[in-house]
User: Fold these one by one.
Assistant:
Number 1:
Amino acid sequence: MLFSPIRPHAESDWRLASKFTALFAWSLRVSDLGVLVGAGLLAHYLRFDTFTMPIEYVRGLARGVLFALIVLNGSSLYRSWRGGSLTREGFKLVTLWSLVFAAGVVYMVGLQLAEEFSRLWWLTWFGLTLAGTLMTRVFIRTLADQLRARGMDHRKAVIVGGGHDARRIAQGFAAQPWTGIEILGWFSTPSSHKYLDEVPLLGEIGDLAAYIETHGIDQVWISLPMSAEADIQAVLGRLAHSAVDIKLVPDLFGLHLLNHGIDQIADLPVVTLQQSPLQGSARLLKGIEDRVLSALILLMIAPLMACIAIAVKLSSPGPVFYRQERVSWNNRRFEMLKFRSMPVDAESGSGAVWAKSGESRATRVGAFLRRTSLDELPQFLNVLKGDMSIVGPRPERPVFVDKFKEEIPAYMKKHLVKAGITGWAQVNGWRGSTDLQRRIECDIYYIENWSLLFDLRIILLTLFKGFIHKNAY
């Protein structure tokens, strides 16, 4: 039996993790209560220019808050979201709150109470509450992810099975510590013909149940081909008396599915293996998000951009902006704007050069702008124009696109959406000359899981840690 040493504090670790999970769940409940009440008061102020409510509004607010909390509490919104989809959570929240609003309208009309309340106040309360609950969820989820990435609120897990898919599981959790899932090792099965080097071998499936009991394991991830049904049933049988979460990862990695789904076209069931997530209304929402936010941001940073423009102009002869051809959505080319950070003729002799740490071609002002990412600010003009998005995969020059698409699998999938100023790869530290394969994996993860909530989360992470980074140059 290849057990690693028994951890004496398994029980206390589990209790601590459970306390963190309960704390985050209650923080969501408290924040929802605060948003519901606060949004109602703010809506009243915006409509009547006073926070003081008549008694009928107080009663209406109390009924609405109570009903909303009952509905939300009866859903799965307060369960642990560890590794779950932010998109699904946001969609569920929008759906539930819309149902609460519709039920409120039916209630008021049915009891002939509609004339007691301002319709504008009711609509404003609905909109403010929806926006507030979405934003607080993004904030709390981001905070929870950061704490888990620092070692708090972890869940211990093991893998059953070896090979490529098991390796993807081990590498995925190692690269995304914000999930709080710690893979301790793997167990072999009769059908496991390949070894897993990323984590230690803990034994065979006959040893699994005892290891789970002695080490306080929370999750078992089964990574076996669907053809190995006998081994899967054997694992389930041995875990019949264990209270662990059991997850089966089907052997679909090899298909490289991207935003896949089952549709019906001409009475034929069709599996979509790859498509852009920005179809129809999603594309419209993304466009509105980009145009509105870029316009607001440009208004706020206009004085800063003016100061930078003066500094660039004084630092060396040449224009303030540097225009460079890049490749974006659907392989379309556009001129990306930056504050000029190098002399005008920096690439006249060398041609296109990949930026590296310790870049010597930059001016003194340019080097500072690169380290702080302030040279990227003019790209909000690209967003306003429609060439880029605020959030998306970073664009590359055509010469590098032609090179990387031959060297890196799935590289061109990043062009299923518009290029962005910031992205999931950048906030996770994959920028500059770092591992391009990991950057592409992050870009594809963003494309597969796109939502407005995910965009907001990336923007918040960029504000907290995305401007100044060791890989920014």
Note: The mean pLDDT is 79.
Number 2:
Amino acid sequence: MSGSDEPADLARQMREKAQQLAEAAERASDPQERERLEKKSRSMRDRSEQQSGMAAGDVYPQK
């Protein structure tokens, strides 16, 4: 794997993890656990978008 692929791979892995967390949140029966997982999923997705922007050479984070 070349060094230029690493940021894109990291962003992809983060998106996959965020999706897994979102799915776990949907299955959670405890409202507090569901909220915790949803929050973690959103945070992970935001970071993956930022990482993806960095991989594309965008120096300004998306808001």
Note: The chain has a mean pLDDT of 84.
Number 3:
Amino acid sequence: MVEDFEVAISQGQLADSMSHVLAKPLPFFNSTPLHIAVVGEPGSGKSSFINAMLGLRANDPRAAATGIQMTTVQVKDYPHPTLPQVILWDHPGRGMATFGEDKFEKKDDLTHFDFFVIVGSQRFRSTHSDLVREIQDMGKSFYFVRTKADLDLSAAKRQQPSDYSEKKVLLHIQEDCKECLVREGVRDPQVFIVSNWEADCFDFPLLQETLKNDLLRLKRQAFLLRFPSICLPTLEKKKTTVKEKIWTRRLCLLIALGSPVPFLLPIFLFRKFRSWCFLDFGLDDPSLAALAQRVGKTSTALKAAMQSLGMFSAILWVLPDLVGLSVMAYEYHRWEHFPIFGCLLSGGISLPRTYFMLQKCISGAADDTQRVLSKALEAEGKKSI
């Protein structure tokens, strides 16, 4: 799959490169790791939840450490026993101050993870709101898991024994969590009510089945999130290929742009050369339209990610020509003969500058290809579960 993806990019077929990823079934993504961060407040049962997900007892040497006191002080990974390349990461608790400050929160970096499970007990808190916003800002998705359902049911039964209904209590907890998540801008939030000590009760079986069913999309997202590291070597090879392919055009433009020509002609020729580069990299209008249609975005949205479309840099590049042109004008006006010295000065300034300008044009097209594909892949990555 990666080979097909790279070949399509090297040929400037950006829409095809996307199709190669989105059309693949789950077995093709088995080798793609899915890193799931389990996050929440201290004492919410994150470590016990991980043990329940892995089917481990607390006294198992492979299990996450649990206890009354805060036991998770650094991030630790736990591979899933049956889901290939699925790794659960136990995170230190958020929102618990130690001697006036949260010493763990400063070290907490969620950007390296593909998916999240926000674990909460009791009511929805500001810590959960902060996590939801942080995850959504990264364009990633999550499950919200409400733990300690057994304790909630026991408390409800003691408080209202005559009007107690397990179904009503669980439904109330779930609806309250969903309402809080919707207020944070989450569309169709997925909330699971569980007890870490009863993995076969409440929503725990549903959670396991949902994760299994979502695995294809989540692993595809994980692949897309790793796209820059996959794409960069391919684009470096592509830059070399483009330089070799259009070297004759570069030579002609180098001579033309390095000559003492009128100010607007270099800009026109630069735009022409840039169009050739865009065509080779698949950034021309028809290619962008095909890619936009494939990912359900507009060409305008994809073009907005490009940084080499403007002419400001080209104008800056030709500004030094004004020095040569000024000398030429002075030479012609002062001595009324062909401005030989001015031409030599202009050419001496223009030739090396023009060479680097054309090199920069090719590099800019390669960088824009990466930005456009990242924007297109972002459209897939941000589709909520």
Note: The mean pLDDT is 77.
